[in-house]
Amino acid sequence: MGTTLQEGRVAISDDVLVIGGGLAGMTSALAAAEQGARVRLLSYKKSTLRNASGLIDLLGYTPNGDLVSDPFDAIATLPEGHPYERVGTEAIRAGFDLFDEAVGETYLGHHTDRNALVPTYGGTVKPTARYPVTTAAGLASDPRDTLLIGFEALSAFDAPLVADHLRAAGVPFDVRGVTVEFPKRFRADATAMRFARALDRDEPADEGPSNTRAALVESVKAHLDGAERVGFPALLGDDYPEEIRGTIETALGVDVFEVPMGPPSLPGLRLEDRLDGALDERGVRLTTGNPAVGFDADGGRVTTVYTDRNGRHVPFEAEQVVLASGGLVGKGVKSNREGVSEPIFDCHVPHPENRYEWFYDDAFDDHPFARFGVHVDRDLRPLDEGDEPEFENLRAAGSVLGGYDLAAEKSGSGVSISTGYAAGRAAGESA
After folding, report:
1. Domain range holding 15?
2. Average pLDDT over the chain, rounded to whole?
3. Second label for 69, Cα 20 to 30 Å away, from 119, 321, 373, 414?
4. Cβ atoms of residues 322 and 19 within 8 Å
5. pLDDT tens-digit profile of 140-157?
């Protein structure tokens, strides 16, 4: 790592600078590091993975709303400008190969191109391409009778209601839901993290001589009634999820699985830890806590990116830059009464001038704003109003990209992985 004196400040210099600590940014950094580049990842806040389910979608629904069984068959039909059309199926597969390598045996689904169907805490069934091993026994394609366990102190997971919704969705198995007391009592606002910590430590139960894990098993046994598998909200440990799940399986004599939850998400946090470990193994440098706020450019190339540290601009130099700062929700794309913009490099974001053309009246309509983001060429370089690259050495990845509706398509993770891989690989090769 070299240093350059610039305007009286020392600029940190790397081959590739990735802006954004989410799935797209992490994948970009891993892909660039694979090319032998010196890589730095700038992340303002903690990764958004802790707010995600931990499920890795590729393409769950077509833009027309049709359920997708094989994402690769459907990708060939996507319109021009869609991020998958920009990178192509080879990069998509390579990106998922990189993900599989990084997470190892903690994730399943790589054995097939077809989507798996995973029940969620809302009682829906989500099509997904990769799923944590802790959810594997709960797939909706599995016909075994199922018991779902909820806890009195965890209002975010209503097991009887989830079971009702799954039956209404037509799952091919009998499913029941019961609510029991967790062996330890917590405050009414306790999150899944507190439950997981008690199981990790196997804390003493509030009543009886046993600890939390054994007491939990006893509270579930009385409700089995022939169920062949048992599903819990995703709180079976943070540090030792496999040990805890294995202990409960052995004691109950049936398979045990987790149902993905909302934030804070234990599967999302576990995934974040796994990817952080992969970044560390590949020598990626992390700089966190300060937002990227501006840049310098020379001759059509970005030369320096600045972060704001308590009002002082800190410079970072790199040969190549990847923008993975998020979309409208993550504030990588901003909107106000004046229009829609990308705030760091002021990249062009196509959108109607009339704000009333950004949306439709029905809340569940196919709103144009859902597709707002920077448009890119097939090298993932953001394009200006004349469809020319904004900068020769700037690429974009993840939800900062336009041309797709990640929520409706259930394609957010897949786009992040595939475009992150393509942008990071190209940046690493060019550095």
Report:
1. 2-108+269-430
2. 92
3. 373
4. yes
5. 999 999 999 999 989 889
